[in-house]
User: Fold this.
Amino acid sequence: MRPIQILPLLCLLLAGTSATTQAQMNIESEVELTPFADGVWLHTSYAVLRDGTRFPSHGLVVREGDTLVLVDTAWGVEQTENLLEAIDAEIGLPISGVVVTHFHADRLGGADLLAAEGAEVWAHPLTPGLAKERGGAVPEFVFEELQAPGDTAPFGNLEVFYPGPAHTYDNIMVWLPEQQILFAGCPVRGAEDKNMGNVRDGDLAHWPTAMKLADERYGSAKHVVASHSEPAGPELFGHTAYLARLAADEAAAEE
Ligand SMILES: [Zn+2]
Assistant:
């Protein structure tokens, strides 16, 4: 087993997760960088739950010419520092831009560090306000085109997509047309998942519509990468919509 480092900045790094979750996990400082497709790497941070389970959190590194684009930071400042070291050692290209896919700490925990390194940090127009409220790093640039569910914005050769409210009101996805990969982030649940995860800041009622919009546009994707599960395919949209309907029905029954 790898040693688990207790971070003094833990509470800060976890800004944006629920109080229960904060009490139940630490985040390992080491980050994995795994080749995923031509010019694409998966970066993975791990939270360690109280029962010892390692809970993964993925983002992407994408080569765009002579520079790199990051889809989400690692889960915290120290983790992002380690990610930058790994990128330097294994890829050796500078990072020009970062797309953070919503305001939670597992997505933008290292955004200030990347901005200080000279990368432009981009997000949905709602993200800066939500991040500020939670005391998280605040992205400097926003995709003004992303207003209504289904809107897209170009980002170099990539496409950024707003499925509308789901896991959060500001969640966005990133499409890699060349490799036919969709980074779907937290709005999409894994094949093994039987529940919706953290729904506290989101919109269960709109979630199935968000999945339908994503499926309409990226239903032929080769890979769909969700934040906290193994990369899979576009079947995850329907699976997630089903789980969202179940959760909404259960919530209604409890009222
Ligand atoms: Zn989240």
